[in-house]
């Protein structure tokens, strides 16, 4: 059965963590993001029959998959019986290769990993723009909603996308960051992974960190000035349309 907790609204699933409704947040002008239209998540490869019933109950029509091609093939969606369509919007996790090389060569330190992660985030506005164009086109299409978008952990590629959407909708930056950081509370996919690493190096890899998100938005502002301009120039979507569709008084 669905269990939705206070903001950020968590949808409790048996085979998936970090599944959240982005609705409910207040904007700087006093409006509110509508509930039940946009969800963010980790991958959906472990959904149980009960989970699928929950997604059906939420009315999910579209799943936007931000994972790389190999990731998606390795862990396919467990959505048999759901009528939702899947849109592939791959952002290849190049940072994983760089981190793996550092681990194999014994160069991994907390500072190095944190730097690689920040560089990865700086890439999102430019390298990830084709994928985010697919996502935001779907978000702008009322026929596609309710919609869930996800990557593997629902942390990095998904975290930037959620922060971008909330920023465009006018949610205060402090709240945007709070939503982003909540992955550290609810994502369980890292448990038992990377036992060979010391705690600080492992933390730099698995945590959502405000510095990482700041790096992405600094790159966005350098190239485009603000989120509305980025949305129009890079993603081909009008911010006003999203606000009209996804906000309520």
UniProtKB/TrEMBL annotation:
The record's section on InterPro entries has: Prot-tyrosine_phosphatase-like, Tyr/Ser_Pase_IphP-type, Tyr_Pase_AS
Q: Name one Pfam family in it.
A: Y_phosphatase3
Molecular function in Gene Ontology: phosphoprotein phosphatase activity
Q: Which family does it belong to?
A: Belongs to the protein-tyrosine phosphatase family.
Q: Which PANTHER family match?
A: TYROSINE SPECIFIC PROTEIN PHOSPHATASES DOMAIN-CONTAINING PROTEIN, TYROSINE-PROTEIN PHOSPHATASE
Q: What is this protein called?
A: Tyrosine-protein phosphatase
Source organism: Vineibacter terrae
């Amino acid at each position: 059965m669905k269990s939705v907790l206070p903001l950020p609204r968590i949808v409790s699933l048996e085979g998936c963590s970090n599944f959240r409704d982005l609705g409910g947040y207040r904007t700087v002008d006093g409006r509110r993001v509508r509930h039940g239209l946009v969800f963010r998540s980790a991958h959906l490869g472990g959904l149980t029959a009960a989970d699928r019933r929950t997604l059906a109950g939420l009315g999910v029509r579209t799943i936007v998959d931000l994972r790389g091609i190999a990731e998606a093939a390795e862990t396919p969606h467990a959505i048999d019986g759901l009528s939702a369509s899947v849109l592939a919007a791959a952002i290849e996790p190049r940072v994983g290769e760089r981190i793996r090389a550092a681990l194999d060569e014994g160069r991994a330190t907390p500072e190095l990993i944190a730097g690689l992660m920040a560089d990865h985030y700086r890439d999102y506005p430019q390298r990830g723009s084709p994928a985010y164009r697919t996502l935001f086109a779907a978000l702008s299409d009322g026929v596609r909603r309710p919609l869930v978008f996800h990557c593997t952990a629902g942390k990095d590629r998904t975290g930037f996308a959620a922060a971008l959407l909330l920023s465009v909708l006018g949610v205060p930056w402090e709240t945007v960051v709070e939503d982003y950081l909540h992955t550290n509370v609810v994502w369980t996919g890292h448990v038992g992974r990377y036992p060979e690493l010391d705690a600080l190096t492992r933390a730099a890899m698995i945590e959502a960190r405000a510095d990482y998100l700041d790096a992405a938005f600094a790159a966005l502002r350098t190239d485009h000035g603000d989120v509305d301009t980025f949305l129009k120039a890079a993603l081909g979507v009008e911010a006003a349309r999203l606000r009209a569709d996804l906000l309520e008084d």
